Structure formats: C-alpha cells, structure tokens
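Quick illustration, no need to memorize.
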Amino acid sequence: MKKIEIYDTTLRDGSQSEGISFSAQDKLLIAKKIDEAGFHYIEGGWPGANPKDITFFEEAKKLKLKNSKLVAFGSTRKAAAKVSDDDNLRGLLASGTQVITIFGKSWDMHVRDVFRVDLEENLRMIQDSVKYLKSKGREVIYDAEHFFDGYKANPAYAMKSLQAALEAGATTLVLCDTNGGTLFTKVSKVVSEVKAALKCPIGIHTHNDGGLAVANALAAVEAGATHVQGTVNGYGERCGNPDLIAIIADLQLKMGYACLAPSHLREMTELARYVGEISNMAQAKNQPYVGLSAFAHKGGVHINAVLKNPETYEHIDPTLVGNRRRFLVSELGGKTNITLKAKELDIHLDKESPEARKILQKVQEKENEGYQYEAAEASFELLVREVTGKRKKFFEFQKVEVSAANIGDKNSSSTATVLLTVGQQKGKCVATGDGPVNALDKALRGALVPYYPALEKIHLDDYKVRVVDSEAGTAAKVRVFIEFRDEKNIWTTVGVSTNIIDASWQALVDAMEYKLIRS
C-alpha cells in the first residue's frame, strides 16, 4: 500500500481557531497524545512569535517522542535582509527541531500588495531561506501559501516559487489552499500538473471555507500527493482546517492507503475527545467516525436492521476507529431498543415482557411531556431501574427552598436550603451560589457528602436549557440537560417543568443518584 505522511498542525493552525487559547502546558499534553496516536509530524508553532511558543519549544526538547517528528514553523527571510541576520530564521534554528517548515508567497498579487517587493526578490527570499536552513542540517518542508489562487492567476510564477524552494533543498513542497475556496476538481487537476512537472514529494494543506477541506485533501492524494496537513477535529482559523481524523480514516479504510498502524487508528475517538477537552471545545456529536452520534441508531426500523446486519446502516465497524454503536431511547424506537438499552445497563428484559411494555409506555408519556432520553442516558437508566424495581433509594427530601436577592444588581446572589434524610439520619445544608442552580447544587451536595463522600469528586460540566413549547411564551415548559463528570466518566440527566428551577432540580437529583449507583 502507498504510504501517506500525516502532518498535524493543531498546535499552530488549530490554535488560531476562535475560542481556543492553548497554554504551553496544553500544547505539550496534546503533542504527547498526537505522538501516541502515531502521526508522522507535529507542528509545534512559530518560535519567536510569542513567549508561549518559545516556552513550548524549550520544554518540548525534553519530550521523548516515539512516532512523531516535532516541527517549527515560520516564514522566509524579510525582503532585502541577510538570512544570517533574520530574527525569524534564527528563532527557527533555536527551537532545536530537526524539521522546519517555512512558508512563502506563490501568488504574485500577495508579493506585490502584501510584501511590496518585486517578483524576483520574492523568489530569492524563498531560495535563500530554504538553502540557509538546509546548510544548518535541517529537513525543510516548504508551504506554498495561496498556491491554488496563485496558480490560477499566474501559473508560470507559481511554479517558479516551487522550483526556487526545490532547488534550494526543500524535501517536500506543500500546496496550500489558504483561502479555502478551491473546488476539489481544480485541486486534483493542479496537483496532477505539479506532480508531472516536479519530481519530488508533494503535500496538501487545505482550509474549509467552502466546506471541502477533507474532500480537497483526498482529491490531492488521489492526484499524487503523499503528505497531508490538517488538524485534530478540524480546528483552525475561520471555518477551520481539514479534520485529520476523517482524512486518515477515509484514506486507510476507504481508499487503500497506509497512514497509521491499525492499533493507532483505534485511538482516533479517544484522541478527538482528548484534544477537544484540552481545547475547551465541545466535540460535535455528528463528527464523522468519532462523534458520539456517528454510530447512533434511533429509529426502530434502523435498529432492527442493524441487529441483523450492521452493514445495513453503518459504513464501517465503529471499533476500527475506537468508537461504539449506540441505540438511542425515544418514542420512535419501540420495545427493541428499550431491551437493547437495558442490556447495556446489565438489566435483561424480554421484548414481550410487561416491564418492557411499561418502560416503552413510560418513555412515550415522558417524551410527550417534553423529556428527551436519547441525550440523557443517566436519567433513562434511573427510569428503567424504577420500573423494574431495581432503583435504590439513597435519600429522601424533607424540604427544598431557594431564594434570590438583589436581582438585577451586580451583587445578586441566591441561597438554597436542602433538608433530607439518609436512612434514619438527617442531613441539612444551606448554601449560597452565583445563581439558583449553583446554590441548589452546593446545598444538595453539602447535605449528601457526609454520607456519600464520592459526590465530592464530581463537577458540573455543562448546563443547557431548551424551550419545549415556545407558543406558551414565558409560561412555556423548559427542558434542562445537565452534564456531570468525575475522574473517569461523563453522564447527562434531564428535567422538564414550567419552572426552570424545578427542571434543574430534577436533573441535579438524577445526576447525584446516578453517581451513587455507579459507585
């Protein structure tokens, strides 16, 4: 099988995504995880561009990478400057990496309007920079910025920019669709023409502004590119970069190319979630291959077919990328997915049993009221346990109150009181919070922790509110989803009420009870 080099730029291009701000420690953690996943190159950033990247490259010298080569990224020398005096090139060398990627201009418009130098000087800037870094014993990858737009405007000059880098010693020439607006048919044609003209490894770097970043990368590989750049989860400036996870899976499982070892491919789901967590970005549930919903089945017809033959509604075996099949609970699924879901919880139900019928009826009633269990599996488990008589009572409430003071003022606060019993013992806690839900959370845990210390280690991860029946205006029912996590697991619960505090309280109580069951 033809081998494809995987070049990750999450730590540089990905960090330019709106909402992402990596610390140097974040970057080190992600670099180690990407190395464990078997990627060939990890672009660490632009040394000298900011103190954070300088710190990263200093600390990265201590990393013992097993699979990946660390790469420093920067630009060609400045116009009319000596390479030996250029601060950017000095910073690249000081990073200590054996591989350096530099970018230069391929589009004559950029040379004239941005650099404001003549076209020949730009070619000298490319050639001098590559040659200088090569003379210092570095492997040099050349990123031809805006190559596809430049090739469209002035193909002869765009090719000259590549030849300048190649003659100076660049090992790989990467064609960049920097504006992300090129169609895959054009990408394929241009890569083929460049590949025929230049006998060297060609790479591809796409952006997703036209929604085609992954497709363009695959088209480039089909046309002869052997080096692909992208980011984990498709993070990047504007609309993002291509998602390397989808690219790797497509190339390896669909197109017959060799990217990673099968054992590394099975780490893709974990990698996507790990990088998303450190980036503080919620993972898209419908992310191809590795999203939570990628192999989730809701309709009864789909579930029935998948049970007989998974290929009916699954394009690959989810375990190949470390994901898993899920059967969602809803009024659409019927008794089949009720029994399947119960089986996942180690509760065995016969499809025609009274319990299965009762659970389905209960789900249908609850969803008619506004509940939604496909996104709140912890609440569904509690419902199943209740119907089957397996729901243990850990506590009972005697009194729950919440009040808010100074509403509309910056010093507003909320106070909650929870009085409950655990067996024969009484627990009570009064807590103040930033809002009523925060106060209730603190008071509930404060009352329970003396009896159940495990609750001290969980924290609220996400809180979502949805209006169920908007026609009712401010009297509408609301659906509250609360996501909690501990050191190992994540779980979501749901509550519904015309009172947002009551809906939140239902979800909070379910979350605590679920943790205690799992403990």
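The longest helix spans residues 500-518.
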